Amino acid sequence: MRPRIKPASAAPILILAVAGLTLAADLIPPDSLGMRENPYLAAVVIQLLIFALPALFYCRLRGREFTPKLRLRPFRPSQLLYLWHAFVFMTSSAVLLSVLMYRIAPEAFSSSSASSAASFAMGSGFFDGLYVAVAFAVLPAVTEEFLFRGVVIGEYETLGVGIAVTASAATFAMVHFSAVRFPVYFAAGLALSSVLYATRSLIAPMLLHALYNAVILFGEKYILYIVDKQNVSMLLLVILLCAAAVLSAMLMCFEAQSIYRGYAEENVPSDYAKSDKRTLFARVAEAYFTPAFLLLVLLFIIVAVARR
Fold first, then answer.
1. pTM to 2 decimals?
2. What's the pLDDT score for residue 163?
3. Distance of CA 156 to the CA centre of its chain
4. In 3D, which of 180, 208, 163 has the Cα closest to residue 7?
């Protein structure tokens, strides 16, 4: 696989394998995975088997020269304000999209919620909440960001940053196999990719993703409860979300400008991969019209329609 298969052809094969493992895990009875006895450990094992191990195996096949593409480095403390604005923007815009999609298809949206998926592990104690946060918010964020913002962007980047970002967001959204949540996952993927490029650190989107997962895991049911009321509370919620999204996006852009100015003043070289000189059409065709990518799209459509 290493020298002969193009990155844009190899990456969707990896995602297709991850998608297959995701579907296979859904078919396994919960009792056989120990979901009833130790749901936290079972969730950790599933995350590692589905996302982490395939991604690590893929990186091993790619060799040591692939490691720098992952951007496994800490972000700067001076970037914390940017990360806060990015978190507010990502959360408010994703919740706003969730409200819209919930109004369109309430039953389908509720059945695919993170809180319902983790409901069997929810408890009333502090440690129960902590275990749920680690197993269903932190670990998924780390493994998914390593795969989609690390490996996928690292492979597609030679075709252009725009293509890498959209490919990462699209594959991230598709492996969740939910038509009603696709816009939410896709938008979140775009936001997380922008954080990766601004901070030049994979740790930053991992942190934001974990915080976002925690908000959705513990807060989505209350948000949907307000939406169900269809009264002034819902209208106020939508107005607040819109205001938060717009304001945080502006502040996020201002902070990003400051970050990039700092890079320029320090003469920090860009860590972007050497870009392809072909036409945009040729690069898009290579990215999105490989057999594996098209098969992934087809699989997503079939499963998403079947789950409606």
1. 0.90
2. 94
3. 16
4. 163
